[in-house]
Amino acid sequence: MTDAIKEFVLETVSSEVFGVWFLIGAALVFWMQAGFAMVEAGFTRAKNTGNIIMKNLMDFCIGTVVFIAIGFGLLMGEDLVGLIGKPGFDLFTNYENFSFSNFVFNLVFCATTATIVSGAMAERTKFLSYCIYSGVISALIYPIEAHWIWGGGWLSSIGFHDFAGSCAIHMVGGISALIGAKILGPRIGKFVKNKEGKVTKVNAFPGHNIAIGALGVFILWLGWYGFNGAACTSIEQLGSVFLTTTVAPAVATVVCMIFTWIKYGKPDVSMCLNASLAGLVAITAPCDVTDALGASIIGAVAGLLVVFGVWLLDHKLHIDDPVGAVAVHCMNGIWGTLAVGLFATDTAPGYSITNAAGETIKGLFYGGGFELLGLQALGFGAVALWTAVTITVTFLLIKKIFGLRVTREEEIEGLDATEHGLPSAYAGFAMLPEYIDEGETVVAVTGDVPVAEAVEVKEMPKVAADVKPASGEKITKVEIVCKEARLEALKSAMVGIGITGMTVSHVLGCGVQKGRPEYYRGVAVETSLLPKIQVDIVVCKVPVSAVVETAKRVLYTGHIGDGKIFVYDVENVVKVRTGEEGYDALQDEE
User: 142-150 and 100-120 helices cross at what angle (nearest 10)?
Assistant: First the structure.
């Protein structure tokens, strides 16, 4: 066998092997949808789990439909003046000659961009509105900017480099998430405001299942080897990409662990999980052009940047991002894009970054000057501007036409029940009630039911006239049954009028409405009792009328079901420990 034939055989085998790896990589990227679903579900509250799973499912399914219709053509079609690809329907009209692998590969990347937005806007977004903007991202926003970078557009022609998507995917998804979360507003109770509207406190809403969140991170890390490595064309390049894709997130996680340990006194679990993803996002653009040292530095910065990003959104910008999507994807997408201009080295296997003149250019820290860094900054600015303008217009139009946010009542109850008719994603497990500290925020009256009907007061049978409390003081019990979400506000209001003791019980019940009909897979579920809170207050010196009127004011929203108040005469009160009776028994002083 001649050398020429040997070379031809090896090239053919290599081409076939990497063709198969290309599709395996695409499958790994698809599997990342499961990772995103687990991270988002684990980092949010149990009452929204079904909604989150549904959104992540529909990201890919809706994305596939619109990518077939227009997205793929805009991304990979014949270049038109460096800005967009020419739309077409070769998938249907010329199937035998269609690039099947290329379509599937680009589709799974496209779906990732929309998924990123889901986490930052979780727990309060209308499902219909989510489906619409997810489709817009997959049909227009992502394909056009990705064409600039990977489809033969203007950025690729000048030397801008983003090997696997720090800019094209993660930064775009992160910017969309940032703008969406800002327009949408925070979850109820996330930020406590005073009467002047100034944020005085930031509340934490812990994720309901960190184990699921951690599983999601490991799934994503595994999928990232396909995300970053699928486009490699040699064993050496693939090995180098795998190395940098391992080093950067590992270093990011260690740095984050040390930093949070020092800053908060304990290593923060959820923040370290975010740091692993931050390191993966940051290395995605330069994974093929940097070395181990560069990957380590990129990861270390990512580990600090993710902590800073979460703090910045919570304490300075007051933007509610339940899963840290902005800190992970937006900030580290930007960092990874610029890192190419700092750490690109021609010692990396298969290095091929050239400028418009065809000259090889390297990163600033490897002797290449500022040229590549400038190109990366230009690409970042152009893609960021395109994304910010288009997604802002999209969100504002959706908000105007369909509404972007669910109602207050729907958000408090949870989107599983209100958006999907799913009582719980964890059937058979009791969900603990949630109490939200809203500070001095006044609840808007959204209904038109009179106070007397919305918060009904019932005076119960009197104690017999010839029975008097041992102390001679009249004692009254006020029993308040109300929605769980109003407990904190009610408690604060009662303390404000001098009530220092109360008993709180979780109760279940249904009024004449018999609860609300619920269905699972189209089959009606048996009527369920609705959770309420029962607050018992025994008063003697504080006027009963003050307690009743304060409770009515705090609980009233204008809807049937705001609550009921029962007023009882109390014959006597006896303190078991001391034997004291009446008013004296109500006092806690020693």
Answer: 130
Pair of tokens at residue 182: 């800002």
CB-based contacts of 246: which residues, under 8 Å, 6+ apart? none
Considering only CA atoms, which of 546, 578, 334, 562 is closest in space to residue 453?
562
Q: Find the largest Cα–Cα distance for the chain.
A: 119
Task: State the pairing for strand pair 79-80/84-85.
Answer: antiparallel
Query: Does the CA dihedral 544-546-551-556 come out positive or negative?
Result: positive
Whole-number Å distance between alpha carbons of 42 and 277? 15
Q: Which residues of the chain have pLDDT under 70?
A: 1-15, 430-456, 458-472, 510-529, 560, 588-590
Q: Is there a contact between 290 and 343 (Cβ–Cβ < 8 Å)?
A: yes
Show the 3-state SS of 457-521. EEECCCCCCCCCCCCCCCEEEEEEEECHHHHHHHHHHHHHCCCCCCEEEEEEECCCCCCCCEEEC
Question: Whose CA is closest to 329, among 264, 384, 375?
Answer: 384
**Strand pairing report for 523-525 and 518-520:** antiparallel
Beta bridge partners of 581: 574
Long-range contacts of 471-475 (CB under 8 A, 24+ apart): 471/581, 471/582, 471/583, 471/584, 472/582, 473/540, 473/541, 473/582, 473/583, 474/540, 474/569, 475/538, 475/539, 475/540, 475/569, 475/570, 475/572, 475/573, 475/582, 475/583, 475/586
CB count in 10 Å sphere of residue 339: 29
Measured between alpha carbons, how far is 37 from 8 in angstroms, rounded to an integer? 45
pTM over 0.85: no
Structure tokens at 534: 């029962």
What is the number of alpha carbons within 13 Å of residue 3 lying toward its C-beta? 0
Q: Under a CB-based contact definition with an 8 Å cutoff, are residues 137 and 70 in contact? A: no
* β-pair partners for 84: 80
The values of phi and psi at residue 533, to 5°, are -120, 135
Token pair 């809807």 in the structure block, residue? 559
Structure token digits, residue 229: 């490595």
Question: Residue 443 burial (CB < 10 Å; 0-12/13-18/19+)?
Answer: middle
Over the stretch 422-481, which tens digit does the pLDDT of each residue have?
988 988 776 655 555 555 544 555 555 566 665 667 665 654 444 455 556 788 999 999
Q: Give the residue among 313, 247, 307 at the shortest CA–CA distance from 280.
A: 247
Tokens 């500070």 identify what position? 439
> How many helices (H) and strands (E) in the chain?
22, 11
